[in-house]
Fold this sequence. Notes:
Layout: H1 5-14, E1 21-22, H2 25-31, E2 37-38, E3 43-45, E4 52-54, E5 58-59, H3 70-82, E6 90-92, H4 100-111, E7 118-123, H5 128-141, E8 147-152, H6 158-171, E9 174-180, H7 187-196, E10 201-205, H8 217-224, E11 227-231, H9 238-243, H10 260-269, E12 276-277, H11 284-291, H12 301-312
Parallel strand pairs: 5-6, 6-7, 7-8, 8-9, 9-10, 10-11, 11-12
Antiparallel strand pairs: 1-2, 3-4
Helix pairs in contact: 3-4, 7-8
Amino acid sequence: MRLTRRQMLRTAASAGAAVLLGGRSAVERALGTVGRTFPAILQRPIPSSGELLPAVGIGTARRYDVGTSAAERASLMEVLRAFPELGGKVIDTAPSYGAAEVVVGDLVQEIGNREELFLATKVRADGRQAGIDQMQESLRRLHTDRIDLMQVHNLVDTETQLATMREWKEAGRIRYVGITTSSNRQHETFEDVMRSEELDFVQLNYSLANRQAEQRLLPLAADRGIAVLINLPFGRGRLFRAVGDRPLPGWTAEFDCESWAQFFLKFLLANDAVTCVIPGTAKMEYLVDNVGAARGRLPDEELRARMVEFFDAL
């Protein structure tokens, strides 16, 4: 049964009572954080089930498209080992991200932490059999017999692929189904699918520099009880280029912000419709920084308006 919006927010608030996470081996080795205690990470519920997800995940486009050598994969191994120790869970990938799906699968198998993770991937194929073949290949690449979230990538043959995905969900091969876009040009069609189909998740582009999703898609997701993953939260680097080497404004201390990355991510997480942001993350220092956005206070509406005014003036 889908949770109402009020039930969802009440469940999210209860996540604040989570047990504190202590510094552990992978984090200590990579950062020297011996004895450090990490505060609880913000979690939000999947409306269709109530299952809680940490609010910051990992995207794998481009950064995980590497070769097979240990040297090429070393930093990624550190990140994927430490990720659940820091409280993270969601890893999003796709067959179209070069070798990323293979790399994630190989490293997670080597580390042995599959059960601590929420693996999301995508299908981008025309026709039923082509979709089945691609999803079977994703299972093989990820070394798993079940995908946590399967998504129709950029609305390619959406109706056909959703039908197959629901069959797989019924059979226990996938847990949740969804659709994705990374382009404002698809938002109108995306909205139509959100209204006509029963979805567990949508994944869409949203950032401080691209707020179009606030107008219709995010309110619709909240109304229909659909979980939301956010891609391109840094606008393909545009946000960092805009702020350059400026220091953080002093007023960002009001929402426990320690970096520009946290500034950009906390802006998104302060929108209650957002379930999880998935910034590309391939280095330990970025992992710790990004996950830090889901700790401490979030900006209220007045502060969010101030963030928009500040950024738009750059």
